[in-house]
Amino acid sequence: MLKNNILALGITLVIALFWLRINDFFAHKGWVSSSISRKIIHIGTGPIFVLCWLLFNDAPIARYLAAIVPLGITLQFAMVGTGIIKDQSSVDAMSRTGDRREILRGPLFYGIAFVLLTILFWRNSPIGIVALMVLCGGDGLADIIGQRIKSASIPWSPKKSLAGSLTMLLGGFTFAILILGILSGRGISPARCHHIYCRGDYRGGHNPDRVPARCGY
Q1: Hey, what's the torsion of the CAs at 181, 143, 44, 49, to 10 degrees?
Q2: How far apart are alpha carbons 105 and 95 in whole angstroms?
Q3: What is the C-alpha separation between 210 and 203, in angstroms, rounded?
Q4: In this predicted model, what pLDDT tens digit does every residue of 55-90 receive, in sequence order?
């Protein structure tokens, strides 16, 4: 954890941009297919971003500063998808067919979810972290496994396979447990903070100012 949240924001932004651009570069060069690059970005972005939350201190503004990173990247997605800016490397890495307008669907909503979950839940609740891990690890792995393992469709959604659905469940669960375990190991316990906040179970009375500092309030 750094004392300066602006520095934490800068480091998070550099890490995020490096992760995206290195995958864009590999896809543009043809070293990995666009579908694989898209899934690598899909699966890896969430855990990397959430682990960067450890850089921020407990100031109330920290969550909003952290949310600037996915917000900025999401705005870039929107501009690339609408053709305002030209970035063929991003198109190659994040679209299935090479059509820039595809970025205005999955990748754009993916980024919006990151912004909202960061602001709404931050390190105070496991809900946001679990949701992001299901979105990244669960959904990302489900598409890969579901396309490669033939299995029956689930009755209520014929386009979804049983193998893909189980992979989403297990992948999201595994990613969530790993990330929550890492945060807890660093002294941040979102589950405990969520319990304290929801019950108002503060020592000495119902005073939110007395929530443990490591809850990130």
Answers
A1: -70
A2: 10
A3: 7
A4: 999 999 999 999 999 999 899 889 988 989 888 877
